Amino acid sequence: PGALYLINSEDKSWKPLQPRLPEDNFQMEQVYKDCPVPLKKDQLSPGGINMRLGNNGRHTLYVVNFGGRASIEVFNMNMDAQEPTITWVGCVVMPEKTSPNSVVPLPDGGLAVTSFADPTKDLKEQLLSGEKTGKILEWFSETGWKLVPGSELRGNNGIEISPDGQWYYVAEWAGQTF
């Protein structure tokens, strides 16, 4: 298990950021209706993170999770308080044979996620053979997951998207390219 941290960029101090987790009678946001069960404290093992900026200090935080399920965990982030707080609101479970690494919110409400490799195959063998191991997947609540054509690379790693939503910027780990 891991944690998220608040880091003060001025004095470089840091401390764990404890998410508020759902109560027994929690109603998940409708957009995440396919999330099987609420996140439990010991199930968060974060990887890549990103944020959709909102209004009035209210944002949405997306966290790649490796703990208990391969998923994107979604939190409401409140920046109005003395220090930021996050509240879990749902998740998007990754499809089989994917290994999520990074996430970016899309301008039209979806998400894009890099999958580094197929975890059911031998990674070392795939990389040494020059095989394209990774890909980019897009998710929308209405349609679910789909492959972005032409996004297969050798170890898709970090991802960002242009402000107009037209271009992905992707780090290819094994090819050491961007």
Strand order of the largest sheet: 3-4-5-6
Tell me the strand percentage band: 35-45%
Tell me, briefly, the overall form. Answer: globular
In angstroms, what is the radius of gyration?
Answer: 17 Å
Output the number of helix runs.
1
Secondary structure: helix percent = under 10%
Total strands: the figure is: 12
Spatial gap, N to C terminus: 30 Å
Look at the structure and give the mean pLDDT. Answer: 89
Helix-strand topology string: EEEEEEEEHEEEE
* Alpha-beta classification: mainly beta
Biggest β-sheet, characterized? 4 strands, antiparallel
* Low-pLDDT segments: none
Would you give an account of this structure?
The protein is mainly beta. The chain contains one helix and twelve strands, in the order E-E-E-E-E-E-E-E-H-E-E-E-E. The strands form four sheets. A four-stranded antiparallel beta sheet has the order 3-4-5-6, with no helix packed on it. The chain has a four-stranded antiparallel beta sheet with strand order 7-8-9-10, with no helix packed on it. Strands 1-2 form a two-stranded antiparallel sheet. The radius of gyration is 17 Å and the shape is globular. The mean pLDDT is 89.
Task: Provide a concise account of the structure shown.
The protein is mainly beta and 178 residues long.
